[in-house]
Write a structure and sequence with these properties.
Layout lengths: L2 E9 L2 E6 L8 E5 L6 H16 L6 H7 L8 E6 L4 E5 L13 E4 L38 H18 L4 H20 L8 E6 L8 E6 L2 E4 L5 H16 L7 E5 L7 H15 L5 E5 L3 H9 L3 E5 L9 E3 L11 H4 L4 H4 L4 E6 L3 H4 L7 E6 L2 H9 L4 E4 L6 H10 L3 E3 L5 H5 L2 H11 L5 H19 L3 H5 L23 H15 L3 H5 L19 H4 L3 H11 L4
Parallel strand pairs: 2-13, 3-11, 3-12, 6-10, 10-11, 14-15, 14-16, 16-17
Antiparallel strand pairs: 1-2, 1-4, 4-5, 7-8, 8-9
Helix pairs in contact: 3-5, 4-5, 4-6, 6-7, 14-15
């Protein structure tokens, strides 16, 4: 069972959030974002659905009130699964969902037990493991399931010892060896880091449980492990003791990387996702971890959802980030450190969200990094050794020649903006052919020409003014040269503006199209409807066009 879409409305910090287009083969969904960005609230939404499935007695007015962003409006969660089953729950239409009580399984980030405390069995009460009755009510509460898991796993082992025909070796291979294999995969095999479980003896005769490990030449009790070692062991024991119950499940485990260094973070998420989450299940987790982000970027069955720096007072739609998108690493290391992180790769700065489309290209040894806008990219390339790509905007052919001569590391698109590439007739032709849809290239060009002519009078009058926003040749050392005046209220600017006006007035496609703002004009054409720009950025034509642009240093 896997989630392909979730929408939450009036839920905690979200007015209306839709997370969409999660591929059905995504085994790992990684939520990234700064502290307080809302990641853990998604896990509260899963708990909200889980409570409806289990029909908890704790669901009352105060329960609903906790989740409501505005108390006078209904709160709702809508989850779509890969079998097209839709789970909808809200306080004004509450009903029990007829699903298995093991459909969801979550753990809060407050789960580490610094030291064992129980001195006899059963001190945790009567636990219904299938109904997960010892889970926290909310995701801000402490998760105290660890000692219950210890009792459960020892109960399972003892039952198999007495009731089955399995030998001690077979039982050890089934329960102890997987734990030690996981510890080795995560912490390594060096004498200083290798951790090996020796024994688990439950709390008996007034004594706390004896969970002992070998590390190097020493034996260490659980209480004396590091915080990171306890965190890892806690997760493994939990999944081992309850995993057989949750075989068709959405797992949501918050901040699994607590107290771990980068290498171990990567090892942990790889181990858990690949070896401890059943194949037909899905794991959701939230993290700022560089190791987690790196694993998710490398894995074919993982997606990253970026919550960072978004105002959720407004409706938002989030979709998986493109693979190899370097901006996701900013959560872990900060933009100023990205160049050193990717020092062996070609770094190209691009305008704002355009990097989503460039990142789809998969150009070897190339990383596209987002800057706020065109001017930021220009200043980055002018004052450093990094390269950049910016829109053509309202530039004449001669403008481009002069700019490339002065700023050799700055690549100018051959068309007005990236949308001109995405909605280019050749690109649409390839895309539609790939998805099996009809597309008439000549008809599209004709409609573009008609639409352009209908809107041209709204574009041309502002050309000269728009050009004054361009930053090129603004260095003080030029002191009023003709090039410096190209983008000021001077005759040089007016002369180039008239050239661009002539481009737009032409009905020759390649003449007018290079200066036509396709981001804001001709948007009503039927050929542009219901097509994802991310999908249009995956064509061979688009990739070849950008590669040609980057092929030679100017």
């Amino acid at each position: 069972m896997r989630i392909t879409k979730i929408q939450v409305t009036n839920f905690k910090r979200f007015t209306d959030l839709l997370i969409d287009n999660i591929p059905s083969d995504s085994k790992l969904v990684l939520l990234i974002g700064s502290n307080g960005s809302g990641k853990s609230s998604i896990f509260d939404a899963f708990g909200f659905i889980d409570s409806a499935i289990k029909l908890d007695n704790s669901i009352n007015d105060s329960y609903w009130s906790y989740f409501k962003k505005q108390q006078d409006k209904a709160v709702s969660v809508n989850v779509t699964l890969d079998n097209n089953l839709e789970l909808i729950i809200s306080n004004d239409q509450f009903q029990k969902l007829e699903l298995s009580p093991t459909t969801f399984y979550g753990r809060t980030s407050f789960r580490q037990i610094p030291r064992l405390t129980r001195t006899s069995l059963g001190q945790g009460g009567n636990i219904d493991f299938q109904k997960d009755s010892d889970r926290p009510k909310f995701f801000i509460e402490r998760d105290n399931r660890f000692e219950n898991d210890i009792e459960k796993i020892t109960e399972i082992i003892l039952k198999e010892f007495f009731r089955s025909q399995q030998s001690n070796t077979q039982i050890r291979q089934k329960y102890i060896d997987p734990i030690n294999s996981a510890l080795q995969n995560i912490f390594g095999t060096g004498n200083g880091t290798k951790l090996e479980l020796l024994e688990i003896i439950p709390p008996l005769e007034g004594k706390m449980a004896q969970i002992n490990f070998r590390k190097g030449a020493s034996e260490i009790h659980y209480n004396y492990l590091s915080a990171g070692e306890k965190e890892v062991f806690n997760l493994i024991i939990n999944l081992l003791s309850r995993g057989t119950l949750y075989q068709d499940t959405i797992y949501y485990l918050d901040e699994m990387d607590l107290h771990l260094n980068t290498k171990i973070q990567y090892n942990l998420i790889k181990e858990i996702a690949e070896n401890w989450i059943p194949e037909n299940c899905q794991l959701w987790t939230a993290s700022h971890s560089l190791g987690f982000i790196e694993y998710a970027n490398q894995s074919d069955n993982a997606v990253i959802i970026d919550f960072d720096d978004l105002d959720f007072d407004y409706p938002r739609i989030l979709t998986p980030e493109p693979k190899n998108n370097s901006n996701v690493y900013e959560i872990a290391v900060g933009r100023e450190f990205l160049p050193s992180l990717f020092q062996h790769m070609k770094i190209i700065f691009v305008e704002n969200r355009d990097r989503d489309y460039y990142a789809n290209l998969g150009i070897p040894s190339t990383v596209f990094v987002s800057e706020n806008n065109r001017n930021s990219v220009y200043h980055k390339t002018r004052t450093s050794n990094y390269r950049g790509i910016v829109d053509r905007d309202f530039l004449s052919d001669d403008d481009i020649v002069q700019i490339r001569k002065k700023y050799p590391k700055l690549h100018l698109l051959n068309y007005y903006s990236i949308e001109n590439y995405l909605y280019h007739p050749d690109n649409l032709s390839e895309y539609n052919s790939k998805v099996g849809k009809p597309f008439n290239k000549e008809e599209y060009i004709q409609q573009l020409t008609i639409s352009k002519n209908q809107q041209i009078n709204a574009i041309i009058p502002s050309l000269a003014l728009k050009r004054t926003e361009l930053p090129y040749f603004g260095e003080p050392e030029y002191n009023g040269s003709a090039l410096q005046n190209r983008f000021k209220n001077k005759g040089e600017n007016e002369a180039q503006s008239q050239i661009i006006s002539a481009y737009l007035s032409s009905d020759k496609f390649e003449t007018f199209y290079k200066s036509l703002p396709m981001k804001t004009y001709c948007t009503q054409l039927p050929q542009r409807q219901n097509i994802s720009k991310h999908d249009l950025a995956k064509t061979e034509w688009f990739k070849a066009s950008i590669q040609e642009l980057l092929k030679h240093e100017q």
